[in-house]
Amino acid sequence: MSLRLLFVLPDKTNQKILAIKTKDKYCLPEYEAHVNEDILLGAVPQLADIPQLYNDFFKNLTGISVFRKYMFSTDKSMIFFCEQADEINNAPANGYYWISYDEIWDDELKIIVDSVNRDYNKHDGFTSYLVWLRSICADKNIHIIGNIEQTKSGIYRIPSSIGNLYLKRVGGAYSELAFTHKLLELGVPNLPEWVGCNPSLNIMLMRDMRGQDLSSKTAMNMEDLLNLAVALARTQKSSVAYVKSADFYGYDYRIGATINDLMRFPEDVHEMLLGTQYELTLDEKKKLAHNTECVIAMLKSIDSAGLPDTIHNSDMADYNVRCVDDNYIFYDWDWGGAAHPFFNMSRLLHSIERLLPSDIPAKEIIIDAYLREWVEYASIEELKRIFSIVDRLLGFSVMFFLKYVRTKPSYSERYKNFSLYLKRFINFSNF
């Protein structure tokens, strides 16, 4: 089923909405193509990842510059809820104008308007970010020299006199801002450079990291790969004392906490999916309980070696690692926390497997180099044993499961994604 892609833009008072009158009814601005309902969160990356494409389309259509705030949907349409980029209401063009909510009588538009009315004040506006951005740039003698662009849903690129700056909105139970800020204060290496932050607005301003993400590479030589492994190990090791301290701030993915979560995992999953189309059968619940016990036993075996917990990036993959002048920056610490260090290395190694040289046992060589950074805690043989278990656990998506169960997503697409991974885990038998 294909859906229309509509744009909703309230005025600054949330009393009017931008629309155009055709014949005897009002219509919202609409994108030139439909989208497929089945791939909204997967195979149409521009919906989530490049909002500026749609922001530019909207400006050409209506004459107003906007940023996208969030997305929602009805049975017939996908909706982008937008905010004006300027601090005042702009005059629309091309037949569009501001109409009062009271003039809306179309059933679907009423559903959309009611949603906007209800949620308008739950989402921070960009105006307050812009005021702070101008202030901090003035304080640091940085000049904004071009238009601000929205590169992702919560990330904005600002061309400036010192190069591109990136403003990022953050959220979650444990703020990425607070998590990363503490690491920078402690001198943890290989992190992005900040210009400043505003905790009350939950935003941070970063300098352009330059270089390129590993996701854009087609190959890497062994020297660079070994340097990457060592860089990650040293970043992790620099955080050991902090993770052990009472001041640690972040999500708890440590083995003890993970085992505690797994003890409740089958029942939590059953409860979460109950009443949905992905509800577990009795047989599936039994298999889930058995496989969960197997994973708990593996985790206890890992923990027996006594390696220290370190900071953990729950999305440590090629697209969150940047190569800059032969150095590496690990970024996007949303959902950052503490865990056994080998989980991050295993995840990263899997994500860059396509980049490894094929004429040598590259993976084994990289793992060996990484593990030798940890020989003060255990013999190389013991470290290899532990890493092999962690590597197998990665295939079970343990961290993925626990993150989703902890957040208990309330919309069906996330249940669908969760269920697909869960079925694989339930049906796995080769522990």
Commentary on this structure:
- The chain has helices at 45-49, 51-62, 107-119, 126-139, 176-185, 222-237, 240-244, 255-273, 282-303, 342-351, 362-371, 380-394, 398-407, 412-427, and strands spanning 2-8, 16-22, 25-27, 35-36, 66-73, 77-84, 96-100, 149-152, 155-158, 165-169, 194-198, 203-207, 212-213, 251-252, 310-312, 321-324, 327-330, 337-339.
- The protein has 14 helices and 18 strands.
- With 431 residues, the protein is an alpha+beta fold.
- The chain has a 5-stranded antiparallel sheet. It has a 4-stranded mixed sheet with strand order 4-1-6-5.
- The longest helix is centred in the last third of the chain and has 22 residues, at 282-303.
- The model is unreliable at 39-46 (pLDDT under 50).
- Helices cover 41% and strands 19% of the residues.
- The protein has 3 domains: 2-122, Alpha-Beta Complex (Nucleoside Triphosphate Pyrophosphohydrolase), CATH 3.90.79; 126-207; 212-427, Aminoglycoside 3'-phosphotransferase, Chain: A, domain 2 (Alpha-Beta Complex), CATH 3.90.1200.
